[in-house]
Amino acid sequence: MMVRNIYKSALLFGSASVIALMPGVASAQSASADVSARAPAADGDEGLNDIVVVGEKRETTLQRAPLSITVVGNDELQRRNANELNDLNGIVPGLSISKSEGSARIIAIRGIGYETSANPNSQPGVAFHINGVYVAHVMALAQDLLDVERVEVLRGPQGTVFGQTSTGGAINVITKKPVLGEASGDVALSYGNYNYAKARAGLNIPISDTMAARVSAQYLRHDGYGKSIGVANRSEYDLDDANNLGLRGSLLWQPSSAFTAILSAQTFDTDRNGALQKNVLDTTPGARTVDQDYPSTFELKTRMVDLSLAYDLGEFATLKSVTAYQYMLKEQTADTDRLAGSFYVHTVRWNDRSKAFTQEVSLASQAGGPLDWTVGGFYLRQRALKDYLSLGSGPALTYQGMPIVFATYSPYQHTSVAGYGQATYHATDALSLTAGLRYSWDKTTGQPINFFNQFGPANPRRVTSDAFTGKLGVDYQITPTNMVYATLSRGYKPSGVNFNQGSVQVPQSYKKEMVDALEIGTKNEFFDRKVRLNASGFYYWYDDYQYTAEDPRVNSGGSWNIPHAEIYGAEFEASILPMDGLRFDGMLSLAKGEFKGDFFTIDSQGALAIRRAQAIALGLPQPYVTGYGYNPSIIAAVQNNLQNTNGNKVAKLPGVQGNFSTTYDADVGAGQLTLRGEVVYRGSFNSRIFDGGPLDRVPAYTLFNASVQYAPHDSAFTFSVSAQNLFDRNGVNSLFTDPYGALTTSVEYVNPRQVFGTVSYRF
Description:
The chain has 763 residues and is mainly β. It is 6% helix and 54% strand.
């Protein structure tokens, strides 16, 4: 009760801040109090910088954006050695990114994420975009960030302008654009321990008065952060290494002030060994040393081409079109049981392929009038395939003489169509009212082609879902630098199909997921913009939470729905410029989420123990093999031991997250010296919807980062040294329990201490 009261008190504080800080504390517009101030420090006399964001697809400043948004600029990304989305952990309030089975990236914002990653046609809860283009396959989230200007993270349901898959929020990567009439470029070389080497370069090329191009490249490699000692004919087998190449090019054509066209293409390739995933039963000394007898590998290819058109219709509106084609191929092998010995489960083939076409058209009013409005439409067509083959030691099932644990070859398609509109009415200079509505329709079809096909060929499966989502909001600008706001919004994640056959409990399709969210907050700047303080409180009503469900019959599970959950919390951010050259930044996030009402399901780890015990009781030959899970008596035993989820914690929701950093700039000799220190805390959370102790509880960690930068005056060079995880803590990023095959639980760690120096040159 005491813990619950603490969280409720924090929520009330975040809410009460709207009133308590009104005498001059209410900051920028309807944007959640988590709008991060992580931009370069401003000149001491001018206070904190304004930061321009796209937000809800309308350009505004960070502190005036009508939504909860955090912006992380390119300089911050480079200083933190943030090469991919997972490296954003610890920067953004409420954001938690977990590694999953060495390849996927599970993004959760305020506890709303992606608990159905084992089902390839299911959709995430946080939408990922590059320049407004929705990235259709979650495996593509493992690509590096290329030629980035900034990353915008929107918290809370974004059901109006971002639509389906944004129940938790949205992440939009904004890349650098070509600039007319400017020949410029930048080059940076980094080297550090683990033979870490990174080279990146960008070049802006003026072609004519109306045309310019920008090209960029980035290569990253390093030795493994961990190793396996069990792979045959190898004394050590590197894990968690890198070998990545990214290329990006953009062509800008602006024949008049009214029309702009940008054609962009981006590629990313990685070919490396697999991730370090340590089985909780592995007793090999050292957190980053494992004993696994099968070599893990990982290859990822992503391709994207997009065309963005904007036409200024004068005082009426601006018409925009964004067209994109995406391709993704992931090929992976893994020691699935993550142990060496006579019992084994090896994933010898795990391929995901995806091709997607998206088209969005929008019409937005010009800024400055009493009514700002946006209307638009969105279309997505995705065709994808999951091809999976896992070999095991069980004699009961074989395929061409090989013992099979699990196999599937399942194509699927996803079509999404939506129309939306949102308007903000500026009733007075201080008071604004916002209303938005979106209608989404989704269809998913799939063809289960599983090896375990004792029931004959499966019929194609098809499911459709639709929803009205949107938002209502009000914000009041008490002073030019103080604002309060309240927002009621709804998010939607579509339904989908399962590829299971012969299941006893888990259905062949699952329901759509809905979230209603209330948020109130305040955003403020004081003392000539030397202090920024933002606070917000939120409460979510969650219906039909999608999760990966085990079935009483082994290898027959899939995605399912828990009827109700509630999530609430508070978030705080502050930036202070106490004196010229000195800056403090900090954030604190508190959250709690529980499932409400009775719902009975199966814990796969508990089911594994029941199956083994029942096999012994039946006198079946030992050791236990997966094939025993098809025995009717064993199926009945599992079905008689369901667990009630009522009161269980929502997965991937740290109770506490915090970040504090100090930056100091000073003229030293012939240049500018910048010193920065940072401490990051992430509290514990459950990796699944169950609380299986060490099988589910991800422990808290505290990490320290530091950097030193020197920029000589009147020079294009900059020199820096950065250290991430300075004290080399073995922080646990995530736990992963395989829902199929071995049903093992493994640990994935944060990166070890990484120290590297960088020389950059701009012209």
